[in-house]
Amino acid sequence: MKGMGIRGRKVWRVFCFFFFLFSTFIFAQEPPPSQTAGGIAQQEKQIKEEKRLQERIKEETGQTQEVFPEKVSPKDVGRKILIKRIVVEGVTLIPEAEIQKITSQFEGKSLSLRDMQKVADLITDEYRKKNYLTSRAYIPPQTIKKATLLIRVIEGRLGEIKIKGNRYFKTRLIKKKLGIEKGGYFDYSALQKSLVYINEHPDRFAKAMLVPGKEPGTTDIIIEVKDRLPIHIGSEYDNFGSRYIEKDRGSLVFEHNNFLGFDDKLYFKVQESEAAHLMLKQLRYSFPINPTLEVGGYFLRSRMKLGREFKDVEARGKATIAGLFLSKGLIDERDFDLSFNLGFDYKHIRNYLLGVESSRDEVRVLKTGVDIDFTDSWGRNIFTLELDTGIPRMWGALTAKDPVSSRVGAGGKFLKWTGNYFRLQQGPFSSSVLWKNSFQLSGYSLVSSEQFQIGGPATVRGYPPAEYSGDRGYYTSLELSLPPYFLPETTKLPLSRDINLYDSLRIVVFYDWATVRLNRILAGEKNRTLKSYGFGLRFNPTDKFSCRSEIGYPLGSPEPSNNDPYQVWVEVKWKY
Predict the structure, then answer these.
(1) Could you write out the three-class secondary structure of 80-141?
(2) What's the pLDDT score for residue 309?
(3) CA distance linking residue 559 with residue 26, whole number of Å
(4) What is the rounded distance in angstroms from the CA atom of residue 527 to the CA atom of residue 516?
């Protein structure tokens, strides 16, 4: 600037002044991480996960109907006979030591006909304990010689397997899912597991009837199926959007739950907020390889533009997320399930201010986790745990700490643990308590799409969506659900003869608490804790229509960013 004149220096100073002013303005108007394209994608993910777990914990398992062989209880007539030895023929499914443990109690004693039948009944009970329900022991006609009693066992085998009532699912498909074959030994637990697997499908319900087979010692299985067309078109409305992209959101949904005829599922959703501030398209496909292994993939594309105080800086963004997943069942018992999950996410996210790219999140994530589902005498529990590993520089991903990321000090390298624990506890007078817990742990500064968010319909309902976010966080909620005691239990829904209003309507009262922590606190940021309480109504008359309305009130500080004394949440779903 030595050769610059006085006028030139003045022009330079004015330029620097306005450049500084402009830069300060842009910095001051930069959206918080939760309102970037990645943050909004994370909002949608947390809402979807909370819905999925809440719906899953209320699901019912499959049922069976069976006909058991009746026990024979003869009258205690005739004299008692000394029995020194009991011989049991035809046993192959139960260890000999277990049979001897039963018979030894009666050997060396004088037995009546009823006592002899009791020995046979105890052997039959042992088969039933091991789920061989059609196997039984009986006393054949005989003359007692050398004080030896003969008991024979018929180990029940499968006869015909008949499928009835199915219209939209092939008989071949249902038989394959049963996993049992004619001529094999009948294992009741295997049948139950197969029915649970079959009935997990939303458009199909099957129950089993056991009837005597044509051949001696066989049992026929009749599977009665009630199914419906597995193609659905639905519409959804909610006000779960933030005020920057307008709260009201509408969606159109297409589902095909038997796309190629293998119980594979195709799901497509288009969502738009008011004034097109948010546009989202989502596609998901899953294919069951066998009863314990499922694979699939998903694709999401969204674009958003922020309003209100971010309108003048033209804050907008776009996100493309694609992923693959695999789920493998490891333990499948009646009251305990354990599965292993593996997945990979490809995230391509851009944010802009005044038409200029302000941040870029290129993230590649390897996901591994477990899923535990178990029940006890009072309720059901679901626990999930997942480890997400960010892989830097993979296919154009961010470096370990990248200056172009949506948060200072964040990048493509990270580790984070996420988990959920939901418990549904049955209470007296048709009440229930749902306890929801979610957490995230990480020692890294995370980009906006990987942060834990609190506030909104999926966490603390007394605050706007994604009010705060952090690298670590914990959320817990207690929700009491009650039937409408003020209505008679037989009250029907108006204009309907079959729908019970008492069973369809639930009153909920809730308390929410959540906290987030940042590993690197920047200017204007704080660790935050939010609390709220509220009440609401749930109306679910059929599986094709549901409505949810809740009001949440904040407790203590901080004040909600929209300054509203309460938040109202509404969600309505139709399926055709």
Answers:
(1) CEEECEEEEECCCCCCHHHHHHHHCCCCCEEECHHHHHHHHHHHHHHHHHCCCCCCEEECCC
(2) 83
(3) 26
(4) 6
For the chain, the distance separating the N- and C-terminal CA atoms, rounded to the nearest angstrom, is 73
Q: How many other CB atoms are found less than 10 A from the CB of residue 378?
A: 10
Model pLDDT, residue 410: 95
Q: How far is Cα 160 from Cα 394, in angstroms, rounded to an integer?
A: 55
Cα gap 537→482, rounded to integer Å: 10
The helix/strand/coil state of 9 is: helix
User: How large a percentage of the chain has pLDDT more than 70?
Assistant: 92
Give the separation between CA 182 and CA 63, rounded to whole angstroms.
21
The helix-helix angle for 171-178 and 188-199 (nearest 10°) equals: 130
Across residues 448-457, what is the average pLDDT?
96
Q: What is the rounded distance in angstroms from the CA atom of residue 49 to the CA atom of residue 549?
A: 19
Mean pLDDT for the chain overall: 89
* Residue in the structure block whose two tokens are 């450049």: 19
pLDDT digits (tens, 9 = 90+) for 521-531: 887 789 999 99
Q: How far apart are CA 106 and CA 89, in angstroms?
A: 17
- SS3 (DSSP) at 556: coil
User: Residue 276: what pLDDT?
Assistant: 84
For residue 461, give the DSSP letter.
Answer: T
Domains with residue ranges and CATH for the chain: 31-61+229-575 (2.40.160.50), 81-154 (3.10.20.310)
DSSP code at position 430: T
pLDDT digits (tens, 9 = 90+) for 266-300: 999 999 998 889 999 999 999 999 989 999 999 99
Closest listed residue to residue 320, CA positions, set 290, 298, 343:
298
| Tokens matching residue 371 | 């899923």
- Give the whole-angstrom CA distance, residue 439 versus residue 474: 4
Confidence of residue 132 (pLDDT cuts 50, 70, 90): confident
- Write the DSSP assignment of 173-212 as a string of letters: HHHHHH---TTSBP-HHHHHHHHHHHHTSTTEEEEEEEEE
* The dihedral formed by the CA atoms of 530, 535, 541 and 543, expressed in degrees to the nearest 10: 10
E-only strand ranges, 308-378: 316-332, 336-353, 356-375
Residue 467, pLDDT > 80, answer: yes
Q: Pairing relation of β-strands 265-273 and 567-575?
A: unpaired
CA distance 71 to 68: 9
Q: Are 467 and 510 in contact (CB under 8 A)?
A: no
Question: Is the pLDDT reported for residue 27 higher than 80?
Answer: no
Q: How far apart are CA 552 and CA 444, in angstroms?
A: 32
